[in-house]
Amino acid sequence: MRIKDVPEFAILGHPNEGKSSVVSTLAENDRVRIGPYPGETVHCQTFPVTIDKAEVIRFTDTPGFQKPKQTLRWFQNYNGPQDRMVQAFIEAHGSDPSFRDECELLGPVARGAGIIYVVDGSRPVRGDDRAEMEILRLTGRPRMSIINCKQDDILYLDAWKNEFRRTFNSIREFNAHRATYRERIELLECLKSVDQDWQEALVRVIDAFKRDWDHRMGVASLIIVTMVEEILCATSEGTLGEGADPKVLRAKLEKGFINTVKQIEHKAHTDIRRLFKHNIFNVELPKNSILNEDLFSETTWKFLGLSPREVALAAGVAGAGAGAIVDTAAAGLTFGIFSTLGGVAGAAAALLGGSRIAGLKLKGVRLGKDQIIIRPAPDAQFMYVLLDRAFLFYASVINWAHGRRDYDDPGKGEAKGAGVTHAWDKGTKQVCRDFFKKTVGGTSRKREEARIAMVNRIAERLRQL
Length: 465
Ligand SMILES: Nc1nc2c(ncn2[C@@H]2O[C@H](COP(=O)(O)OP(=O)(O)OP(=O)(O)O)[C@@H](O)[C@H]2O)c(=O)[nH]1
Ligand SMILES: [Mg+2]
Known about the structure:
Elements: E1 8-13, H1 19-27, E2 45-51, E3 54-61, H2 68-77, H3 85-93, H4 100-110, E4 114-119, H5 127-139, E5 143-147, H6 157-165, E6 170-173, H7 181-192, H8 196-232, E7 236-240, H9 246-275, H10 298-303, H11 308-316, E8 324-328, H12 334-338, H13 343-351, E9 370-376, H14 382-398, H15 426-441, H16 444-463
Parallel strand pairs: 1-3, 1-4, 4-5, 5-6
Antiparallel strand pairs: 2-3, 7-9, 8-9
Helix pairs in contact: 2-5, 3-4, 7-8, 8-9, 8-14, 8-16, 9-14, 11-13, 15-16
The protein binds guanosine-5'-triphosphate and magnesium ion.
């Protein structure tokens, strides 16, 4: 009998083995309750996976078995019709509080759900586990087992596999904390083979998952390109009052500009996080991730793999660190203002042989008032820093399993030279340059063309991660 409805899988097992964590990761839902002590899940809760507004599969979280041996004994002595067995157990024990959890967890099985049995493979197999597996075998439902090693301990892995071979159609190692998108798909592929009647429905589910993932990469690309576009168009402007100190105004504007850029970047990162359904839990970055470092720091740029010359460029156009061009409408102010550009900008000028003050442009336009405008340089290396950081953030988010709620691995940050853009081919860099330039100076048609090319190119690069 082919299943026509949305396939449902109940996640069953002993208390505290990681059932809820597996549900959370499989359903990409960070609302699933997970806790360090046994008995966290008391009631069944179903988490649907919705793609394009249609539910494609649902995973049901359940409480753990409390009395597997007694339950098994009842199942072994049952002599009614096979297809009513689970329902008959619930009817027989519904009013007995000591079987409350068994009645609750078998509810989804009684209504036809497939079974995913979860064990913590870092501990030995016990009698209760054998009883649980035998109960599940007796239900006759399509079932697979998942070994979720909570510790990095594989000592008992083979013992578990041997045990499982007797009971389950399919066995899979699946770490609820580390599973990637690919591993989720592989798990679904495995589910496909547990029962022929379920195959057709699961092929549709896998297809929907793949299309959805691809779509998300397109949207992520759009978010990243829009971020760069907004930053390229950001300005911080001010007018110098009578007798006011230009240095003070410039510092104020720079600060405003830096804040604007940081906010735009932060919003883009939040949008990417939401796109990958991390809604409640804020994906933590490794403690020493370069993304915790300030966007405007030289450390960030060096780390991302910028050469000394590129660092100088990024810093130089930053106008004392802001990734900006400083325009001034007041010719008389020009030298006063620019002589205050010390530090990295000065270093950049030196590196570039003083031929060009590292991208700083001066505009001697008199507007009647003394105006200072700070805006980013479209040819700035800084734009690549933004792209690198967006890619790093994206990689962190897509690899953060929803079942994972803490960062217990503080030792690992990204590898040095983690920036991706420096390795991009000439063609891609040309698409970027074109986009940077046309965004600030092109006609609206050229701007749109450059934007589309950029979105496509970035999506392509994201797919290669
Ligand atoms: N390190 C690590 N911890 C895990 C993993 N899976 C689960 N845990 C932790 O184990 C504890 C129990 O996880 P849950 O997912 O709540 O387990 P459960 O089987 O649903 O537990 P009950 O609802 O109490 O039956 C939590 O503290 C999880 O963070 C894993 O793959 N790795
Ligand atoms: Mg639970």
